[in-house]
Amino acid sequence: MLTGRVPDDGRAYLAAAAGDSPFAPGTPLEPGLALVDPTPTWVYPDFPEEPAELLAADIPILYSGPDALVVDKPHGLPSTPNGRLLRATVQSLMRVRLREPELVAAHRLDRDTRGLLVLSRNPATRGFLQSQFQRREVEKTYQAMAPDIPEIGAQWQEVALPMLKVKDDPQVRVGSAAALPTQPTLSTQLKPQGRAKSTVTRIRKLATRRCVATSETNAAAGTAATAVYELQPRTGHTHQLRALMNHLGAPIYGDDTYPAYCPGTGALQLRAVVIELALVASEEKGAIKNRQRIAIERCLEDPWSQWNRG
């Protein structure tokens, strides 16, 4: 809505549709033009150049069906447009590459997390996909590389922790304290207090070995024992897995936020490797049938083979 005069700032202003506007929709409004009344207006802002390496990112398609795509999202590429990146996102790039303007991400992965992302391609069945995520009916498994935690073994263990997202704080807090490493509390079921929300995560260890740090992991790795973990979030809190591993004293390699904000630490060694949900809409309303398991099998077969490669 413009008032007074049309700005002379180098941008093009076009009249928007409005019943009482003296301008037809789409009429260019010249800089300096005096407006008698507040006028609904469209403006096309200038967008900064986006990183060429993100715009050219490889996004493998692992599943293609009538209602959905499942892709392997690269590290560093946002799932959807945000305030800084509009074109360099999985959703925008796949819309252009596949010429499917209706593609919409059914959920999100953190920008730094690599792995399986579901895209809805049919507006008529979009709610069917999104509702499965909203109702926590989707089974998701992640793999992470981090320092070895001796207390975690090959059997699944469940950890319940209260977490709190504080505005303008890059870290999610565990309980009421800042997310600083503590002694592992694998058997402790902590109850949330105040505004903190309950989180539940299953975790087990896949493999352990001594690993020399590289630029793709984290200098903190040194030559200490390193492990690959599998994690299954039962809730959907921001940074749930990253905050959990940091709380257990084993922040994920490449994490630029936990335990301290430190950008430029290399690719986050966290990947969404398995997702299980119904990818084709059922004829029976609300029913979840024909669940499909999509997995990055090369990660599952050899926990070490795909790490340290960005």
TrEMBL record:
It comes from the Bacteria. Residues 69-247 form the Pseudouridine synthase RsuA/RluA-like domain. It holds the Pfam family PseudoU_synth_2. One of its GO terms (biological process) is enzyme-directed rRNA pseudouridine synthesis. InterPro entries: PsdUridine_synth_cat_dom_sf (IPR020103), PsdUridine_synth_RsuA/RluA (IPR006145), RluA_PseudoU_synthase (IPR050188). This is RNA pseudouridylate synthase. One of its GO terms (molecular function) is pseudouridine synthase activity.
